[in-house]
Design goal:
- The complex is a heterodimer of chains A (140) and B (128).
- Chain A is 14% helix and 41% strand.
- Chain A has 140 residues and is mainly beta.
- In chain A, a hairpin with a 2-residue loop joins strand 3 and strand 4.
- Chain A is elongated.
- Chain A starts with a helix and ends in a 14-residue tail after the last strand.
- Chain B is mainly beta and 128 residues long.
- Chain B is elongated, with a radius of gyration of 19 Å.
- The chains are: A mainly beta (140), B mainly beta (128).
- The interface between A and B is medium-sized, with 37 and 32 residues.
- Strand 5 of chain A pairs antiparallel with strand 3 of chain B.
């Protein structure tokens, strides 16, 4: 499995969803899982970013097993107090979990995560055994 | 406008740092005394928020610095990063000096006190 096939699978699943939604008022609005992610990569690993504003960083749950990374966030109810009357209520609340499979095993000990300006950034490192190795060719 | 950690500006021009401008999602609710507005603007810090009140239009602006991942290549994208802008029509007699604004973890909170004339009045019925 590599990035291209992983991404192609995700794209195909998204296209299926688009076909399913055709003719509905929401047609054309691509439905992704929440929280949405962007992924960058290089030889050593990857960076995953996700926009999850206004959460308690202590309540972000991050778990790594093999090549799989799972994170759970809890979006709180914002309004507090008595006799509240909503005029707009567009923000989501509740617990959301995202599970991503990367095309390499993750070194959990070297993985770090930070939360700033409402954006979660997870920096994952490849397990040593999955890194490319260069071999010296012996010649007589 | 009373500011906790958000600077106020009279600059009405929107300088766009990247191509996308999103409408931030909001919760707005009212209590007896105030109107509360919460807007999600992930990627924006307190230095890059502008709040303008002109006549009856309250505009919130958030500028985002694009992510720079040196030495990495973007391979998958579900969301775009961009600036935020949204306008609201508010009552005429809002006291702009009493608006409180805070920005924390990508969430803008505005508390707008209702003018005296907009507050509910209780009229007691006297019984003889």
């Amino acid at each position: 499995m590599d990035w291209i096939s992983t991404l192609r699978d995700m794209e195909l699943a998204a296209q299926d969803m688009d076909r399913f939604l055709r003719g509905w008022p929401t047609a054309g609005m691509r439905r992704y899982a929440y929280p949405q992610v962007n992924i960058w990569t290089n030889e050593d690993g990857a960076i995953i970013t996700s926009e999850v504003p206004g959460i308690d960083p202590k309540k972000i749950d991050l778990e790594i097993i093999g090549n799989q990374i799972t994170f759970t966030v809890e979006l709180p109810e914002r309004a507090a107090g008595e006799n509240i009357c909503y005029i707009r209520n567009e923000l989501q609340t509740g617990k959301f979990t995202r599970e991503l499979r990367l095309p390499f095993n993750i070194d959990a000990d070297k993985t770090s995560a930070e939360y700033a300006k409402g954006v979660l950034r997870i920096t994952v490192k490849k397990a040593e055994k999955d890194k490319p190795k260069k071999l010296q060719i012996k010649a007589d | 406008m009373e500011n906790k950690n958000v600077k106020k500006t009279e600059d009405k021009s929107i300088q766009k740092t990247s191509g996308y401008v999103f409408t931030p999602k909001v919760d707005i609710w009212e209590t007896e005394d105030d109107i509360h507005l919460i807007a999600e603007m992930p990627g924006v810090d307190e230095k890059n928020v502008d709040i303008n009140l002109e006549d009856q239009t309250l505009t919130i602006l958030g500028r985002v610095m694009p992510d720079e991942m040196e030495g990495y290549e973007k391979v998958y994208s579900e969301y775009h990063v961009g600036n935020y802008e949204r306008s609201f029509t508010v009552a005429q007699d809002i006291d702009r000096d009493k608006i409180k604004a805070t920005m924390k973890q990508g969430v803008l909170t505005l508390v707008v006190p209702k003018s005296e004339s907009a507050k509910p009045k209780r009229i007691e019925v006297k019984a003889e």
